[in-house]
Write a structure and sequence with these properties.
The protein is α/β, with parallel strands linked by helices. It contains four helices and five strands; from the N terminus they run αββαβαβαβ. The longest helix is centred in the first third of the chain and has 13 residues.
């Protein structure tokens, strides 16, 4: 049976592309972060566009974020958030509960270009592509080290560009 050509092609035209969908998941995950200055989310996706894991920047399991310094500066580094917080990329890798081989060849969506420490974890996990939203630390020593690591290990990375929607509003009252 051949379908009438008039009924074909009537699907929605304003649906999210895969990159937009996964970056949206990444942004939504960032809202779980309790960091007052920087909220970052990450979403790892396999070759078939299935979500493998999600993470956001926050404290390690069992470490109370109520008794935690969230400041960016202090008298010494231990009075800041930096020695304690787990970045979104690392959390997404550590949150994954499947076989490590499933991460090989996957891609990670992240709000902020990965730091050099997260770049090492991405490389070791087998992730082969990074799609990032912002590169606000471009040109810093850590950012340059991250890019050098990724380039040397042939990990592809590019900035997310949308062709569809710049804003998605989630309304929990909507029916």
């Amino acid at each position: 049976m051949k379908l009438d050509e008039k009924i074909l092609g009537n699907k929605r035209k304003d649906y999210l592309k895969w990159d937009e969908f996964f970056m949206g998941i990444c942004k939504l995950a960032s809202y779980r972060s309790k960091d007052p200055s920087t909220q970052v989310g990450a979403c790892i996706v396999d070759k078939e566009n299935r979500i493998l894991s999600i993470g956001y920047n926050g404290t390690p399991n069992g470490f109370s974020d109520d008794n935690f310094p969230w400041e960016r500066t202090g008298n010494n580094k231990n009075e800041t958030k930096y020695p304690y917080v787990c970045h979104a990329e690392l959390n997404a890798i550590l949150n994954y509960r499947g076989s490590r081989k499933d991460l090989v060849g996957s891609k990670i969506y992240v709000d902020l270009f990965p730091c050099n420490e997260c770049a090492k974890a991405i490389i070791q996990s087998g992730i082969k592509e990074i799609i990032y939203l912002s590169d606000k630390y471009n040109g810093t020593l850590e950012n340059n080290a991250s890019k050098h690591l990724l380039d040397t290990c042939k990990i592809n990375y590019h900035q997310f560009k949308t062709t569809n929607k710049n804003e998605i509003i989630i309304n929990f009252d909507e029916k």
